[in-house]
Amino acid sequence: MSSAGAGASPVAFVLGANGLIGNAICRELGAEGYTVVPAARDAEALSELAELLRASGVDCPRTFAFDATDDDALASAIDTVAAEHGLSVAVNNVGRGHQPTQLARMELDEFDAVMAVTFRSVAVAMRAELRALAEATGPRAIVNVASSAGTGAAPGMSAYVAAKHAVIGLTRTAAIDEARTGIRVNAVAPGPIESGPIMAKDASVRTTVGGYVPLGRMGLADEVAAAVRWLASPAASYVTGAVLPVDGGKSA
Predict the structure, then answer these.
(1) What is the CATH classification number for the domain harbouring 232?
(2) Is residue 160 among the annotated active site residues?
């Protein structure tokens, strides 16, 4: 398994690259000098993202389109990135929400589907990423995109909350397990962010939601990406097992 040679740009694999947060993470890492390899389910959206990255001067040698719950495709993509380009950083930004439903009334199929995307795919990805990073040299890091729901609770969101709690537990445990290898594992925990389904809502809804945040507004995808970039970088070389809130003070 190869790694980036001397003087080569560090390589970042971004799982869940589509959507506002995923796009922002790719752009932020690209601007920081990383070679970016995006992966997501929508091949057309990935192609558009790759064109945008390349147009801005970012090295984006390829993309991977697959469903995050496809274990073989996910592991194969990570192995391929490591073998062909080397791997320095992996970002896991996947999740599936659900309509607010009390656990007693939630269908188990829906519960399982949320857990499969939001937690299990992260575990499968990390398993392959850690193996690849173990054979790489230089600074190495994994950053998981969790949620403020993973540090508390939200009414009616039992499956999503449980899955994000699990991602945080996995992050902290892997950080301890890998500490002596030099592989750092951290997470960001975004609060209300202007991305995903809420962007389809009227602006007044976003204003109302932001009003509950101490800073008085919803966060931006770029602000999540900036936190991911810092945790991935050598500037955070003494940080592992951390869960960084990006929530405008909500968790305080």
Answers:
(1) 3.40.50.720
(2) yes
pLDDT for residue 7: 55
Bridge partners of residue 38, in order along the sequence? 14
- With a cut of 60, say whether residue 183 has pLDDT above it: yes
Residue among 34, 160, 212, 238 flagged as catalytic: 160
Q: What is the pLDDT of residue 2?
A: 36
Tokens of 244: 């960084």
Number of domains in the chain: 1
Evaluate whether residue 166 is within a structural domain.
Answer: yes
**What pLDDT digit, counting tens, does each position of 88-137 carry?**
999 999 998 888 899 999 999 999 999 999 999 999 999 999 999 999 99
Per the domain annotation, does 6 fall within a domain? no
**Cβ(133)–Cβ(5) below 8 Å:** no
- Asked whether residue 4 is domain-assigned, the answer is no
Structure confidence by residue, pLDDT tens digits, 198-240: 777 778 877 888 888 999 999 999 999 999 999 999 999 999 9
3 domain residue, yes or no: no
What is the CA 213 to chain-centroid distance, rounded? Answer: 23
- What would the two tokens of residue 119 be? 């937690």
Number of H helices, E strands in the chain: 8, 7
Q: Structural domain of residue 158, as residue ranges? A: 11-246
DSSP codes, 159-184 = HHHHHHHHHHHHHHHHHHHHGGGTEE
The residues, any chain, with a CB within 8 Å of residue 134's CB and separated by 6 or more, are 181, 183
Looking at the chain, list the stretches that DSSP marks H as alpha helix, in order from N- to C-terminal side: 19-31, 43-55, 71-85, 108-115, 121-134, 158-178, 203-211, 221-232
